[in-house]
TrEMBL record, chains A, B:
Gene3D superfamilies: STAS domain. This is RsbT antagonist protein RsbS. InterPro entries: Bact_StressResp_Reg (IPR051932), STAS_dom (IPR002645), STAS_dom_sf (IPR036513). SUPFAM superfamilies: SpoIIaa-like.
């Protein structure tokens, strides 16, 4: 069985999906990722799908499950690298990709995770950084 | 033909090899990587082979070629994630993996690249920052 490696880069986990997702591969990936989130304490997961030719309902469901599992483990998921032609399929299939945030590439995905994490920190911690905007309106 | 995606993360390029290397795939990867080095001005390339079950002479030669091409384009290559069992094969085959530096994982590979780049910078530039911004690619 083929296995999708989970790479740790700083405090994010990166998964580059290049092989066709089958039931076993998808389950194994969910398990590996969950274990790695717990083992490393990472708060962000980036899934690159730039190698995928199509995002069908199975892939969409797999991504949604990964995002949901990660959220339970206090990690956010961003899906990056979706090709223009690929983006059309889930829309046509009526897949809403619930709970999945997307970014154009890995760099932007990392930015998105850093930004939302800073926001979360600002709420429950007092240590504001220079960059933190004091005028930012806290969400009620 | 399957294609291995080249991901840009800060000022390094990351390649996660998960599929069996065939002639066309390897050539395409070399080409994609060379183009991306030139397009982004990245100085570091990390190749993750944690998904590979074996490093035979073809894979070894491919990695060596990628490292050589990258060096010509002023980028250093580090191969990361080699599994313990996998490491035995190239030694037994007598492959010396010329010009290839290795690290245990992506984080250590990034450190290795940063360290050798800082060393190179210190020689020809005086402006040392406390924290080199990995996202900033100085265009000459």
């Amino acid at each position: 069985m083929e296995r999708v490696p989970v790479l740790k880069i700083g405090d994010i986990l990166l998964v580059s999906i290049q092989i066709d997702m089958e039931d076993q591969t998808a389950l194994q990936l969910q398990e590996d990722l969950a274990e790695k989130i717990v083992a490393t304490g990472c708060h962000g997961v980036i899934i690159d799908i730039s190698a995928l030719d199509i995002v069908d309902s199975f892939v969409g469901r797999t991504l949604a499950t990964i995002a949901a599992v990660s959220r339970v483990l206090d990690a956010e998921t961003v899906v990056v690298g979706m090709r223009p032609a690929v983006a059309i399929t889930p829309v046509e299939l009526g897949l809403s990709l619930p709970g999945i945030r997307t970014a154009l590439n890995v760099d932007l995905g990392i930015e998105m995770l850093a930004f939302s994490r800073d926001g979360a920190w600002a709420e429950d911690a007092e240590d504001d950084e220079n960059e933190a905007d004091p005028a930012a309106v806290p969400t009620p």
